[in-house]
């Protein structure tokens, strides 16, 4: 499997509260990116952000 390094990158994920969007946001964070997560359900993004590995998700309301 090829790994990616997104260190020092800001990536926007639309629909980041759940499902595929949340999985993409998590994968990008684990690859070093800072993620700006947008979703109509911003409270769910905030709860997901509180998990230790996701502190680099920026919640945008």
Detail the poorly predicted runs: none
Across the major sheet, the strand order is 1-2-3
Structural class: alpha/beta
Radius of gyration of CA atoms, rounded to a whole number:
11 Å
Q: Main beta sheet, described?
A: 3 strands, parallel
Report the average pLDDT across residues.
76
Number of domains: 1
The CA-CA distance between the termini, in Å, is: 35 Å
Percent of residues in β-strands: 15-25%
Helix percent band: 25-40%
Along the chain, the helix and strand elements come as EHEHE
| Total beta-strand segments | 3
Q: Helical segment tally?
A: 2
Broad shape:
globular
Protein architecture, described:
With 61 residues, the chain is an alpha/beta fold. The protein has one domain. It is built from 2 helices and 3 strands; from the N terminus they run E-H-E-H-E. It has helices at residues 19-30, 42-49, and strands at residues 10-14, 34-38, 57-60. It has a 3-stranded parallel sheet with strand order 1-2-3, with helices on one face. Strand 2, helix 2 and strand 3 form a beta-alpha-beta unit. The longest helix is centred in the middle third of the chain and has 12 residues, at 19-30. The radius of gyration is 11 Å and the shape is globular.
Considering the chains and any ligands shown, give keywords for the structure.
61 residues, 3 strands, alpha/beta, three-stranded parallel beta sheet, single chain
């Amino acid at each position: 499997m090829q790994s990616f390094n997104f260190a020092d990158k800001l990536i926007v994920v639309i629909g980041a509260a759940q499902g595929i969007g949340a999985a993409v946001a998590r994968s990008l964070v684990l690859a070093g990116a800072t993620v700006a997560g947008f979703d109509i359900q911003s409270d769910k993004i905030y709860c997901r952000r509180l998990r230790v590995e996701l502190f680099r998700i920026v919640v945008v309301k």
